[in-house]
Amino acid sequence: MGRAPCCEKMGLKKGPWTPEEDQILIDYINLYGHGNWRALPKQAGLLRCGKSCRLRWTNYLRPDIKRGNFTREEEDTIINLHETLGNRWSAIAARLPGRTDNEIKNVWHTHLKKRLKPNHGSNDNNRQAKAKAKVMTTAHTPGSPPESSSEVSTVTTSENNGNMCATKIETHEDHVSEIDENFWSEVLSADNSSMAGDFQVVGSDPQLHHQYFPSSPLPKLEAVNEYGPNIYDSDTNMDFWYNLFARVGDLSELPEI
DNA sequence: AAGTCGACCAACCGCCTTCGA
DNA sequence: TTCGAAGGCGGTTGGTCGACT
Predict the structure, then answer these.
(1) Which residue ranges does the record annotate as region Disordered (predicted)?
(2) In this predicted model, which residue has the larger pLDDT, A172 or A78?
(3) Kind plus residue range of the DSSP H or E element containing A134
(4) Helices (H), A98-154
(5) Is the pLDDT of residue A138 over 50?
(6) Within 7 Å: CB of A19 and strand B?
(7) Does the nearest atom of strand C lie within 7 Å of A38's Cβ?
(8) Are strands A198-201 and A134-137 parallel, antiparallel or unpaired?
(9) Count of CB atoms within 10 A of residue A139's CB?
(10) Tens digit of pLDDT for each residue in A143-163?
(11) In terms of pLDDT, which residue wins out, A214 or A41?
(12) What is the rounded CA–CA span in Å between residue A242 and residue A257?
């Protein structure tokens, strides 16, 4: 048996709040606080359900709410936090003073998600469009023999936080890994470097790599863009792998960076 | 000028968690 | 320990507005 919606009672108003209702709610909370949301509307004389009052207060009327457009820094923070926290909007909001989970959720769906998608025409998207959804794990450690076919390791995921399609990473004899295109655009947007072009994996962070590809050689990230090859420093490389495994594996199992 | 479409965002819905009796 | 009430959270909806045809 499901619980009846809280606003199902006859006579309770729904829809946009009027300035008068806002003022009543503000005045009441300023005077008495909001100890009991269910009881609040009746005591304040509002024809609203408690849930609606709570939402209106936390998302709009709270005095510490910062209105206006998100700054680039805030957007980057959201993107970075979303990388690690997923769609836990309230957790992300807790790291952004003055911003609500609802607001962040809206910004994500209307702005930031697009920024991470390829083929949208912006500089970012042009950049992302250049990136091929392909990684080549070319690198055995110099002098080491190629891995045998029995040492193929595979990581698969059909969905991670509902954001991506099937992802499959395999290290085969031909050292080619096919990865979903959205994944790469997300990885590209997640870091602030000017990555573009094809990616080549030519070495690796031992700790991360061994955890997920225990039997294959250690790759390192190299981006090939219009300015030529660019091998990343160890931090960037680690960030890359962190982002990668955050999508294909269980984040909680990742080691601390 | 009117109609259509898409972006934006406030608000709702339903599920899950927490807490107290 | 159980159960119901209340709060919290994330997904979704629907109204509004501006751009475009």
Answers:
(1) 114-161
(2) A78
(3) strand A134-137
(4) 101-107, 113-116, 123-130
(5) no
(6) no
(7) yes
(8) parallel
(9) 18
(10) 232 232 222 222 322 333 322
(11) A41
(12) 8
Distance between the alpha carbon (CA) of A133 and the C1' atom of C13, Å:
34
Name the closest residue (CA) to the C1' of nucleotide B14.
A5
Q: Tell me how far CA of residue A193 lies from CA of A3, A113, A126, A127, A229, in angstroms.
A: 50, 19, 15, 11, 14
The reply to whether A5 has its C-beta less than 7 Å from any atom of strand B is yes
Provide the edge-to-edge strand list for the sheet that holds A221-225.
A176-178, A134-137, A198-201, A221-225, A228-231
Task: Report residue A13's pLDDT band, with 50, 70 and 90 as the boundaries.
Answer: confident
Measuring from the CA of residue A54 to each C1' atom, give the nucleotide at the shortest distance: C7
**Hey, what amino acid is at A22?**
D
Q: End-to-end distance of chain A based on CA atoms, in angstroms? A: 47
Count the residues in chain A: 257
